[in-house]
Design goal:
Layout (H helix, E strand, L loop, with lengths): L8 H7 L7 H15 L13 H13 L1 H5 L6 H6 L6 H13 L3 E3 L8 E3 L1 H5 L1 H14 L9 H11 L12 E8 L7 E9 L2 E6 L9 E3 L2 H9 L7 E3 L3 H14 L10
Parallel strand pairs: 3-6
Antiparallel strand pairs: 1-2, 3-4, 4-5, 6-7
Length: 262
């Protein structure tokens, strides 16, 4: 149904199969199991019944259909058009599978059918991140490096999940990832917070903020799994990136023991 064209997709598919795994693999499998348990229409157990949902998540990621929907709801044609030309056929199939699997939902109160990322899809970034971490840990030859679009999509999808920021917090904050290929520069987002609410998330890194957190992909994943072990470079009003990292941890990984991946 899909090919591993993006980081974590192949390892995610393999997690659906029984296997002997090391600690990173057990953590990734536990993260996937937690996500399956959160399905809106009822929990899924690992096994044949969960394979369509896992395949839809991997296909959406590999085809970049998920990336197309990360910023805002789109009509199906718009979502397909936003994918690279050589991936449009895969995107069409992925969008259909994602809708069946409850990963995308019709936008409410819209005159035309527009597809939006479901909260379950947003939380699906956790097993994808854990799978990408597993690929890095195993130094797999078939692993696909994380690229700028992956970083942007992950932040755009997950940051809206955060609740409970301090009510007095008003700040902007840059969250960035230096790409392994220096020619790609930085990828990430600028978050605007007003009175404890995230009011905008932009991929325009020319927007200045002296408050930031930055680090390579693996350091970001590790920080979200266990904020106490974060190795991110941060500056400015440090309570802001710390609160964002803690918020993402609570929404994505808090119920999965970091000890499994230590």
């Amino acid at each position: 149904m899909t090919t591993a064209r993006r980081a974590g997709a192949l390892a995610l598919l393999e997690l659906a199969r029984p296997a002997t795994r090391g600690e990173e693999g057990r953590f990734a499998a536990a993260t996937l199991e937690r996500w399956l348990h959160e399905r809106p229409s009822g929990p899924l157990a690992p096994g044949p019944d969960s394979e369509p949902a896992i395949e839809a998540l991997a296909a959406g990621w590999s085809s970049a259909a998920i990336h197309a929907l990360a910023a805002r709801p789109l009509a199906a044609a718009e979502a397909v058009a936003a994918v690279a030309p050589d991936g449009r056929k895969a995107a069409i199939h992925a969008l259909r599978a994602m809708e069946v699997a409850e990963l995308i939902v019709p936008e409410p109160d819209s005159d035309e059918k527009r597809l939006a990322a479901s909260e379950w899809l947003r939380r699906g970034m956790a097993p994808l991140a854990a799978a990408a971490r597993l690929e890095i840990a195993e130094s797999r030859e078939d692993a696909t490096p994380i690229d700028p679009r992956d970083v942007e999509a992950a932040f755009l999808l997950t940051l809206p999940l955060i609740e409970g920021l301090p009510e007095e917090m008003c700040s902007s904050c840059r969250l960035t990832v230096p790409m392994p290929d220096p020619r790609l520069g930085l990828a990430g987002v600028v978050v605007q917070i007003e009175w404890g609410r995230i009011v905008s998330i932009s991929t325009d890194l020319t927007i200045w903020s002296d408050t930031y957190a930055s680090g390579p992909p693996l350091d970001w994943i590790e920080a979200l799994i266990d904020p106490s072990e974060a190795r991110l470079d941060a500056a400015g009003a440090l309570d802001v990136p710390l609160a964002l990292v803690e918020g993402l941890h609570q929404e994505l990984f808090a119920e999965v023991s970091p000890a499994l991946g230590a």
